[in-house]
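Researcher: I'd like a candidate sequence for this fold, 673 residues long. If you have to choose between options at a position, lean toward the conservative one.
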């Protein structure tokens, strides 16, 4: 049994309440009348916040889904070859720092005889991927105290910097704005060079002097506007302020390239470098020269190989741990988003062009310079890297999304099925039982599920308890909430402190669960009947049909109610006394269940934990004491009849009751025989 399946099963308790309207997961826009009128129904279920699996070591050979994805990706990469304008490429995929796919296709030079294919050690110009080194430099200087704040103005480092502002908004160009393409600076520096020998034969002083007569293209902090000028200024001005005896190029070589052992990466195109460099071609298929960017070199001068780019990507995937280049905290800052673009998918960072794909934020930096294209991408959450370098200029749109669609959809299921159970204590019986608060109002059940401990906090929320030591567990919330509620609840990873185990009883007498505001909503003391989860599936179906399918509206509008329940019963999963009743998502059953709530004057609330029952069954017979292992019913506002701020009897509830009663709960253990 793996954690993924356990999490899914443990999540069922909240799912049913969200579907049936017993808790705050119900969408306010859901209207029963529109369902009965056969209008288009919007599923009231929220989208649960996904939990990403840990990137564990993979078996050898690789699982079939991953092998198939790599095969498809290899075929896709080869289709990018254009014999005229993009005749050669090299690419690779790595997982946990180990290369699992290499592709070399086309030729290094169209005129070479015999033709040679590029490989992972072939040198290509990387264009704007060079900007990554500018940002590493910036954060190194920030960590060492040479830069006081990312929000300092660039004029602190380029002392005579100024540029005209045609906008009415006051604008101070800062390091952070420049690093995240939000400064509003023009794209290109005023270089006055050529693209044959030296594209920018100027000094910093000359560039700054020329900028005084130029204008911002947009106010800062509005939306990204790509600026090579911004990155060239950052690289040149920061290092010149740091030391007059070195250059930006020398600083990067000493402080970044050498520590990363990127032996085939640099700025200067020596004869030995040229001999290993794939020839670049323009759109017409003509060879291009390896011209120098001069003063603008920080923005795009560099060359590298796929193997060296993989080293850089792994540096970021490991958050710099163990490299001695930049501390993990600063690397993590580098990877944060700075601006979410209007399409809701594209995200800008420092210096990343990122994208949300299948709940993952893929970091990437593309580079295009005359005759070459390249893309460095990585995904720390899955420890994946994908690099592609091309001897030609091609649009990079789609070069990112398709590969990661393949990789994510292959890796996530495989890794999810490999996730281990949360650690459990060697003596789970010391913790299992029903606990109640000192006021005697609430019961909280600790139980064992698939060899893991779990804590039912409310009738709708249960968490796994991950063992740390004999008196300390960490709460692990299943993916049963939308992301905003998942974060606001603050329940995940909270520590649960158990009291010392009693030597006579062998049980812990209580525990403390520090404040989780917003998670435990106000609970109404209930005398309402509940449908009892039963290990006898036939009996449970009968109860559902009896209550949910007998109202007039259900008979009129849901004639196949019984069939719906029978169909849903196929999804019922029982695991003995610790089982959970899995409610289905069929609209007709939801209508039937909703009708039960809407029409029954007592507003009966479906209870889904197979081990939990109230004091009576539906037929009114008393339940045995062994069933009383955490019974509770939660009644919420249903079908716009009850205000979320009132009790069922109409009395106003305080806001503090609705968002969490106290910052810490103490529970006393109550033995259940």
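Model: Candidate sequence:
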């Amino acid at each position: 049994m793996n954690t993924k399946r356990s999490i899914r099963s443990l999540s069922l308790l909240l799912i049913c309440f969200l579907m049936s309207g017993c808790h705050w997961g119900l969408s306010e826009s859901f209207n029963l009348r529109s369902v009965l009128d056969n209008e288009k129904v919007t599923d009231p279920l929220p989208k649960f916040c996904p939990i990403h699996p840990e990137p564990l070591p993979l078996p050898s050979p690789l699982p079939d889904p991953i092998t198939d994805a790599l095969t498809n990706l290899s075929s896709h990469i080869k289709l990018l070859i254009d014999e005229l304008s993009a005749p050669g490429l090299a690419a690779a995929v790595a997982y946990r720092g180990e290369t699992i796919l290499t592709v070399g296709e086309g030729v290094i030079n169209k005129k070479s005889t015999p033709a040679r294919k590029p490989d992972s050690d072939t040198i290509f110009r990387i264009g704007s991927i060079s900007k990554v080194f500018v940002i590493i430099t910036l954060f190194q200087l920030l960590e060492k105290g040479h830069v006081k704040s990312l929000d300092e103005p660039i004029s602190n480092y380029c002392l005579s910097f100024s540029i005209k502002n045609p906008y009415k908004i006051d604008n101070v160009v800062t390091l952070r704005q420049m690093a995240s393409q939000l400064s509003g600076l023009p794209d290109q520096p005023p270089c006055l060079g050529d693209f044959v020998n030296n594209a920018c034969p100027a000094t910093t002083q000359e560039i700054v002097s020329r900028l005084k007569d130029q204008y911002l293209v947009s106010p800062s902090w509005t939306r990204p506007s790509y600026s090579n000028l911004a990155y060239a200024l950052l690289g040149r001005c920061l290092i010149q302020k740091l030391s007059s005896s070195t250059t930006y190029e020398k600083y990067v070589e000493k402080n970044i390239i050498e520590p990363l052992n990127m032996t085939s990466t640099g700025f200067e195109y020596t004869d030995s470098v040229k001999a290993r460099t794939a020839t670049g071609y323009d759109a017409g298929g003509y060879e291009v020269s390896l011209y120098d960017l001069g003063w603008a070199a920080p923005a795009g001068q560099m060359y590298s190989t796929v193997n060296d780019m993989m080293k850089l990507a792994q540096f970021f995937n490991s958050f710099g741990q163990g490299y001695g280049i930049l501390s993990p905290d600063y690397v993590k800052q580098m990877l944060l988003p700075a601006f979410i673009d209007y399409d809701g998918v594209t995200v800008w960072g420092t210096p990343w062009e990122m994208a949300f794909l299948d709940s993952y934020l893929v970091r990437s930096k593309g580079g295009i310079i005359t005759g070459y294209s390249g893309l460095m991408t990585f995904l720390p959450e899955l420890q994946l890297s994908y690099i592609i370098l091309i001897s030609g200029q091609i649009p990079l749109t789609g070069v990112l999304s398709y590969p990661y669609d393949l990789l994510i959809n292959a890796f996530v299921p495989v890794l999810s099925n490999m996730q281990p159970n949360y650690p459990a204590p060697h003596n789970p019986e010391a913790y299992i039982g029903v606990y109640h608060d000192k006021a005697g109002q609430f019961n909280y059940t600790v139980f064992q599920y698939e060899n893991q401990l779990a804590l039912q906090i409310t009738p709708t929320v249960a968490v796994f308890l991950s063992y740390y030591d004999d008196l300390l567990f960490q709460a692990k919330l299943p993916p049963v909430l939308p992301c905003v509620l998942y974060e606001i609840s603050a329940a995940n990873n909270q520590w649960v402190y158990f009291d010392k185990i009693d030597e006579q009883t062998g049980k812990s007498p209580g525990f403390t669960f520090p404040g989780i505001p917003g998670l435990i909503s106000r609970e109404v003391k209930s005398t309402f009947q509940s449908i009892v989860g039963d290990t006898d599936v036939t009996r449970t179906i009968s109860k559902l049909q009896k209550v949910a399918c007998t109202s007039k509206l259900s008979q009129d509008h849901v004639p196949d109610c019984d069939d719906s329940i029978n169909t849903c019963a196929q999804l019922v999963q029982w695991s003995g006394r610790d089982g959970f009743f899995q409610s289905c998502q069929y609209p007709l059953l939801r209508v039937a269940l909703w009708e039960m709530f809407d029409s029954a004057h007592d507003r009966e609330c479906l209870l889904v934990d197979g081990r939990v029952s109230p004091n009576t069954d539906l037929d009114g017979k008393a339940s045995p004491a062994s069933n009383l292992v955490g019974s509770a019913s939660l009644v919420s506002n249903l079908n716009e009849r009850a205000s979320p701020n009132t009790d069922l009897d109409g009395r106003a509830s305080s806001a503090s009751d609705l968002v969490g009663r106290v910052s810490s709960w103490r529970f006393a253990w109550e033995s259940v025989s």
